[in-house]
Amino acid sequence: MRDVAIIGVGATKFGDLWENSFRSIGIEAGMKAIADANLSGREIDGLYIGNMSAGRFINQKHIDALIADYSGMATNHISAVRVEAGGASGGVAFGQAVMAVASGLHNTVLVGGAEKMTDQDDVSINTAMDETADSEWEAGMGLTLVSLYAMIARRMIYEGTATREEIASVAVNSHFHGALNEGAQFRKEVPLETVLRSGPVADPLGMFDCAPISDGAAAVVLCPLKEAKKHTDSYVKVSAFAQGSDTLALSQRPDITRFGATVAASKRAYEMAGITPADISVAEIHDDFSVAGIMALQDLGFCKKGEAGKVFLSGQTKVGAGKLAVNTSGGLKARGYPIGAAGVAQIVEIATQLRGKADKRQVANARYGLAQSVGGTGSAVTVSILEAV
Amino acid sequence: MRDVAIIGVGATKFGDLWENSFRSIGIEAGMKAIADANLSGREIDGLYIGNMSAGRFINQKHIDALIADYSGMATNHISAVRVEAGGASGGVAFGQAVMAVASGLHNTVLVGGAEKMTDQDDVSINTAMDETADSEWEAGMGLTLVSLYAMIARRMIYEGTATREEIASVAVNSHFHGALNEGAQFRKEVPLETVLRSGPVADPLGMFDCAPISDGAAAVVLCPLKEAKKHTDSYVKVSAFAQGSDTLALSQRPDITRFGATVAASKRAYEMAGITPADISVAEIHDDFSVAGIMALQDLGFCKKGEAGKVFLSGQTKVGAGKLAVNTSGGLKARGYPIGAAGVAQIVEIATQLRGKADKRQVANARYGLAQSVGGTGSAVTVSILEAV
Q1: Relative to the CA of B15, which of A122, A250, A282, B202 has its CA 20 to 30 Å away?
Q2: Signal peptide position in this chain (chains A, B) (predicted)?
Q3: How far is A254 from chain B (nearest CA, A)?
């Protein structure tokens, strides 16, 4: 298995991109990443796309061919693959692309994620989200994705492993960083009070506990680590990628306040990279709902059960404040959550940090960074570890 | 890159499976393949799923987790990945699974394809099919997938590279073999006259030129070639896998009577396997519409442009009749076309042939077999070459 490097990254602004089509944002992110890698499109020999719902949103499946076509790469008939895993679509696409280079089947691969959501009506958006839960035993019974996460939050509060304030502080952390990121959808700090008083969505979660509806795309270029220097002086090593699954329905789990898939995937990833959680300086975690941030920090081994809320509430996760900076991009909550793009955008952020190009939100002396992407209620989780070289 | 072997195969019957759910057919095929490989589910460490439209058909995305869950594998939190590439979904899933084992990231992988279509209404089915064409420039303008293939047929007839009778004979060949396959949806030979006189769908194509709406699932188990003997005496080597893309819209191609993605992918695959088309004894090709069979034989290098129709009409492609037997399973036309399952079902058939277990439709002394899977109008094509060992 060959070692793999990230040699270029690119992303659109996240937010309401009403002037742009799904096609155009996918191409914009891809072209930025290719230019950042000092390549032309002709040197790419494999394409991976993470996308959740273009079938439902714009009646377009076969996004693989669409992006190959509109980026001009279809003229070379390159291999193009679309993967879908709900909210983890981008994370899974990244993993498949890493495997493609590691195996030797491809050499220079572009992996992108894209979603165009703000021009959809609420029914379409909610149906698409709920399809990532269990359609027979959850969504079909009237459960929505946010209500499932609300039950997790309710259970944590009942068990005493997190307070309402601690859960809300995950959103405060993401907004703190979003204010520092020019590409973020919401560039505004938000006090804890605002999160606590925001309109209820599914009790106890309010509007500010939920990541927004967004448009956006992100992309990275991969090649064998040995060849990275040929293209750029500023590259990052992919030290590990691992993925885990879990029951589709939350009700089938022995404990709903932890994601077994995160625990399993992160264990495999740490082992593959030969490190422990203490070696990580910067992490992008999947805060589609604030309560997911609490679980992430615990399930990834950064702290014990019942401690993550205290860590967030104390402000230690803000850049410069502690040993581990979390969601320096603004996370899903403040950077924005164009679903299929999210997992790739996390990789863009971690690579940017490890290259020392994160500007106002730069974490000092980071050697290792981690990204965690989640589909449904933890039914699919990817964990990637990147290393500065 | 490690060599990869197929050590187990399984499939449901294809057809109207009204007594079964999407979940149950996926599990049935998977369990058959695992049992055929003399394994238990616990030994599988990676899962790949090809599925086109469960999101639209049963409001269920995240099929990766669904299958991991219902097969009991989610308790181990194994990695599970769903890919989608229209009609090539199963073929692409197979390719990703091969890569997973070849790279060393996974060791024993189950790859399955499944689709449940017969309980859908016509609008849902047609929308799902048309989403694999270009939604903005084709489907959005009223073009359907069958009408795009009808244009290809019309053009061939105009150019004189195939006659109406030759095109129809592709369906005759598939039905000849379907009659010999107990798992096929249509087990009845069909004379040329019946195809020619079948009700028009999109002129010149009639009902018997079109693959049916089907339910079904298929699965295979992969492991490193070196370890295959530990599990079974009856295994097959994966000699090559390659994939190609093309413009999403047919109108953007210089020549609509050939699929550049098939040409490119097959060239790469022959090179990878170190063989020529003449070495192949049995091929499964993507005859979703009869005219696609004509293109396939030509684009895969089995004969020159204008000759494939004559080959089919002469009956040389029937088992025992010539050097190359085509669609011995009955193909998409007679075996059935549960979309996401089709590409995996082709692999099941070729592996069964090379293991000498194809019963009444057995091809004698076959060393190499090929499978070609197509998405949309050739916007994604996979070509796999298997070898008897």
Answers
A1: B202
A2: none
A3: 11
